[in-house]
Amino acid sequence: MNKYDKYLIVFIVISSILMYSSMEWFVRASTSSQTVAVVTFHDKVVLRIDMKVNKNYTVKGALGDVIIEVSNGKVRVEKETSPYHLCSIQGWVQYANVPIVCLPNYIVVMIKNGTVNPDGTDVNTK
Predict the structure, then answer these.
(1) H helix or E strand, kind and range, residue 43
(2) Given pLDDT bands bounded at 50, 70 and 90, which one contains residue 5?
(3) For the residues 13-36, what does the mean pLDDT come to?
(4) Does 125 have pLDDT greater than 60?
(5) pLDDT tens across 80-101, in order?
(6) CB-based contact 75:3 (threshold 8 Å)
(7) How far is the first Cα of the chain from the last one, in angstroms, to the nearest whole number?
(8) For residue 126, what pLDDT is reported?
(9) Distances (CA, A) of 82 to 31, 45, 48, 53, 85
(10) CATH of domain 35-116
(11) Residue 36 — φ and ψ, nearest 5°?
(12) What is the spatial distance between Cα 64 and Cα 81, in angstroms, rounded to a whole number?
């Protein structure tokens, strides 16, 4: 390994750190204080959740019920029926445009910027 290989490794490490930190900043900056979790089943919106209300929600999936928990502005799939339980293992999500995907159940939970009316309709989504 010559000195140019070492320079290349240092350059790649620094570039990776800069790219990761800029993407992390972008994800945090693109999330407003008013967020809505949009739950879809087979690409159809079945539920809009206000992220300020701590509550558990149940949605019918292809393999059974999917329990979605909202707490302190974060959302997660608490319990679901699937072979590997990957969406419940994913854990809490609090930033916009970071999805929770339950492929065997065809459920997707995506946080978006916006507000929800008390009747459950979406006021504005950005």
Answers:
(1) none
(2) very high
(3) 83
(4) no
(5) 988 888 888 989 998 888 899 9
(6) no
(7) 50
(8) 46
(9) 30, 21, 23, 27, 5
(10) 2.60.320.10
(11) -130, 135
(12) 6
Q: State both tokens at 27.
A: 């994800």
Give the model's pLDDT for residue 15: 96
What one-letter code names the amino acid at 77?
Answer: V
Q: Where are the alpha helices (DSSP H) in the chain?
A: 3-29, 86-90
- The residue count of the chain comes to 126
- Of 82, 77, 70, the C-alpha closest to 100 is 77
Dist. CA 107–CA 126, nearest whole Å: 21
Q: Positive or negative CA dihedral for 26, 55, 77, 60?
A: negative
- Alpha helices (runs of H) in 30-107, residue ranges in sequence order: 86-90
d(CA 82, CA 104): 6
Question: Tokens 């879809």 label which residue?
Answer: 40
